[in-house]
């Protein structure tokens, strides 16, 4: 039996093309997806990577061979695919490797209504079938082959998002948008087109080789061009989308990054104003400020693991109105509990445009602590290094540990989380404290152990 353990991750498929997977394997995944979900119709979309159209079409053929009708929406952002899944009531598959380098590609799968497919919700079964069929070939079926048709949902996606946020009375704003040669270049012109915005575009040309910078705004070096441009043109804010445009990062008028935790808190406050007393989900590496703001606004904060399938599951279980991750994934009950950076961006535009002050002043009340940002270390023995870190801090007074996701170490005035990446051979470190000096001290202490 073939081993897909390096390809099938906790909540998606992701690997190098063609070394780890190719179109014949994509066809098998399509057949397995339909078999596991029992779907008689599905919807697919793909990003701008050179390998995406072929992989997506092969998947469609595999699905159709099992009798499922396939609606292809073509070039799309990941949240546009979730919109199609939600609005059409169909399971979906999005071909993207998000922020990974150009040689990667992947599949984010969902059931109808954008419900997640992760290891515990079907992905393990899809992997098992795919491994078997790699060896035996696809089994014969009596099913009549399904159809493959095309449908453009971009305008409907834009209209739906704009129906969820009142932007009618905002003041004119100048916004620089860095699409990173990713799918933001496809969606932003349609979504923003009718708003009172002076949009300054950066890298809107769809190019999955990423000629200007990686489409990963979580890495500060990929924000530099946007920061410079915001200052050059005197913009009110900047927005940076990742490769599949499901995440959005915000830059203030000074060219300074706004913490995704601060954006989570801002949007949470706005959603709680519409839905008093609601639950808000936050992952365990968001700032302490998030649960504080949720409680201050009458809501109930719920802490969960990192990762979209875990957040979506928790939102479905609790009926939460909103969820945020420090990686700038933002989830909305009004969007089938799925993540959409575009809707978060619209909330920021509405909040900023609804008052006269600058963005830096608007978000200051939501940004209360000093943070390290995510620091990655390439480590061979991830569990061993994590255990060593725990041992190094175990004797300190008033320390608590939890293992909800990796290792979270908490003291009265600081916390840090150390966890293994689900998609890369890395340990990820996030630190927060009441002052920058404590963050720097902790950073040096923890990294000395990790990298020993």
TrEMBL record:
Organism field: Actinacidiphila oryziradicis
Alpha-D-phosphohexomutase C-terminal domain ranges (all copies): 374-447
CDD domains: PMM_PGM
One of the GO BP terms on file: carbohydrate metabolic process
Family as reported in the entry's similarity comment: Belongs to the phosphohexose mutase family.
InterPro entries assigned to the protein according to its UniProt record, in alphabetical order: A-D-PHexomutase_a/b/a-I, A-D-PHexomutase_a/b/a-I/II/III, A-D-PHexomutase_a/b/a-II, A-D-PHexomutase_a/b/a-III, A-D-PHexomutase_C, A-D-PHexomutase_C_sf, Alpha-D-phosphohexomutase_SF
Molecular function terms from GO: intramolecular phosphotransferase activity; metal ion binding
Protein name: Phosphomannomutase/phosphoglucomutase
Cofactor: Mg(2+)
Domain Alpha-D-phosphohexomutase alpha/beta/alpha residue range list: 6-132, 156-255, 263-369
Signal sequence residues: none
Alphabetical keyword list: Isomerase, Magnesium, Metal-binding, Phosphoprotein
């Amino acid at each position: 039996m073939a081993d897909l353990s390096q390809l099938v991750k906790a909540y998606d498929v992701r690997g190098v093309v063609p070394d780890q997977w190719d179109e014949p394997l994509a066809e098998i995944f399509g057949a397995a997806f339909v078999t596991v979900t029992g779907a008689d119709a599905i919807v697919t979309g793909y990003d701008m990577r050179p390998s995406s159209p072929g992989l997506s079409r092969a998947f469609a053929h595999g699905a159709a061979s099992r009798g499922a009708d396939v609606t292809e929406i073509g070039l799309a952002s990941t949240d546009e695919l979730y919109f199609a899944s939600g609005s059409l009531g169909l399971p979906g598959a999005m071909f993207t490797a998000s922020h990974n380098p150009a040689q990667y590609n992947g599949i984010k799968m969902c059931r109808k209504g954008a419900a997640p497919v992760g290891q515990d919700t079907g992905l393990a079964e899809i992997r098992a079938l795919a491994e078997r069929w790699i060896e035996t070939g696809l089994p014969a079926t009596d099913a009549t082959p399904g159809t493959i048709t095309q449908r453009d949902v971009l305008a409907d996606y834009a209209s739906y998002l704009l129906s969820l946020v009142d932007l009618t009375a905002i003041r004119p704003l100048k916004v620089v948008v860095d699409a990173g040669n990713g799918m933001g270049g496809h969606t932003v012109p349609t979504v923003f087109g009718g708003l009172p915005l002076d949009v300054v575009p950066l890298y809107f040309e769809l190019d999955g080789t990423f000629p200007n910078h990686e489409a990963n705004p979580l890495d500060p070096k990929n924000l530099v061009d946007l920061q410079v441009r915001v200052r050059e043109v005197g913009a009110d804010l900047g927005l940076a989308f990742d490769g599949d445009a499901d995440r959005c990062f915000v830059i203030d008028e000074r060219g300074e990054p706004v913490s995704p935790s601060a954006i989570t808190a801002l949007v949470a406050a706005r959603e709680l104003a519409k839905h008093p007393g609601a639950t808000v989900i936050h992952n365990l590496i968001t700032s302490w400020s998030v649960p504080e703001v949720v409680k201050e606004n009458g809501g109930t904060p719920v802490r969960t693991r990192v990762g979209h399938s875990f957040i979506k599951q928790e939102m479905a279980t609790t009926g939460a109105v909103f969820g945020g991750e420090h990686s700038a994934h933002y989830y909305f009950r009004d969007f089938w509990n799925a993540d959409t950076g575009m809707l978060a961006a619209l909330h920021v535009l509405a909040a900023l445009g609804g008052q006269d002050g600058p963005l830096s002043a608007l978000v200051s009340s939501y940004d209360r602590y000093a943070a390290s940002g995510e620091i990655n270390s390439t480590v061979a023995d991830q569990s061993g290094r994590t255990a060593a870190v725990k041992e190094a801090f175990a004797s300190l007074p008033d320390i608590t540990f939890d293992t909800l996701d990796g290792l979270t170490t908490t003291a009265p005035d600081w916390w840090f989380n150390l966890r293994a990446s689900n998609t890369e051979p890395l340990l990820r470190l996030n630190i927060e404290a009441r002052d920058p000096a404590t963050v720097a001290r902790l950073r040096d202490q923890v990294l000395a152990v990790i990298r020993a």
